[in-house]
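quick q for whoever's on today - can somebody do inverse folding on this one?? i tried earlier but teh output was garbage lol. tokens:
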């Protein structure tokens, strides 16, 4: 501010916003991120504007998750406050998405699609969530980003459970499992086995369910995860 560096002031405000978000002070976070957005728009800084929109989306997303964790509800069954907060997150992610498309930033598009999928899932809009996660998956593959690809498969598996397509869910969870083994991430491998166990229980294929639950148990014991 002293040296009149508006872009720098905007970035600093954005960083403060992200810090407040991590501290769980969501209202202060929104004020700081909004300041970043205002300054970026005033300066015609499109990259800063996109980042600010994404950050505000993240604040509302974190606030929505924080509020729903306290209530421990299933996706789609939530209070009006949680619903409105997640809808706001979704709106900011949509605005971010259209701007990063304009800027041709594919990596940022991937992040926006992933977060739109997650917010729509929490809102109980499972078809929309699946559509966004498929877009996320395509971009992850484009970049060879296996961690993002693995997350997309897992999120698609979750969405298809709620859409009642257990067979499709099982296929996505198997892909999650395969990638978690490639990435040597045992905790995620255990989670995928757990999801597959539950899916096969719902499909009434108890032999397979037992097989996956035993694998989950084995990894949990290996990791000493009580």
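ok took a stab at it. sequence:
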């Amino acid at each position: 501010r002293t040296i009149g560096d508006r872009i720098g002031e905007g970035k600093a405000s954005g960083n403060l916003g992200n810090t407040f978000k991590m501290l769980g002070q969501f209202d202060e976070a929104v004020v700081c991120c909004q300041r970043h957005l205002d300054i970026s728009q005033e300066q015609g800084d499109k990259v800063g504007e996109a980042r600010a929109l994404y950050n505000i989306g993240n604040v509302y997303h974190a606030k929505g998750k924080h509020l729903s964790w306290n209530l421990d509800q299933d996706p789609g069954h939530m209070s009006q406050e949680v619903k409105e907060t997640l809808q706001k997150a979704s709106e900011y992610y949509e605005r971010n998405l259209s701007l990063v498309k304009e800027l041709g930033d594919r990596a940022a598009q991937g992040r926006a699609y992933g977060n739109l999928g997650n917010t729509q899932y929490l809102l109980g809009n499972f078809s929309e969530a699946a559509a966004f996660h498929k877009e996320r998956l395509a971009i992850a593959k484009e970049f060879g980003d296996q961690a993002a690809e693995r997350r997309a498969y897992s999120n698609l598996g979750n969405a298809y459970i709620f859409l009642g397509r257990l067979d499709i869910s099982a296929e996505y969870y198997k892909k999650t499992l395969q990638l978690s083994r490639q990435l040597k991430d045992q905790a995620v491998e255990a989670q995928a086995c757990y999801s597959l166990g539950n899916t096969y229980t719902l499909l009434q294929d108890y032999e397979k369910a037992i097989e996956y639950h035993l694998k989950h148990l084995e990894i949990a014991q290996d990791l000493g995860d009580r």
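fwiw The chain has a mean pLDDT of 96. also The chain has ten helices and no strands. so keep that in mind when u check it
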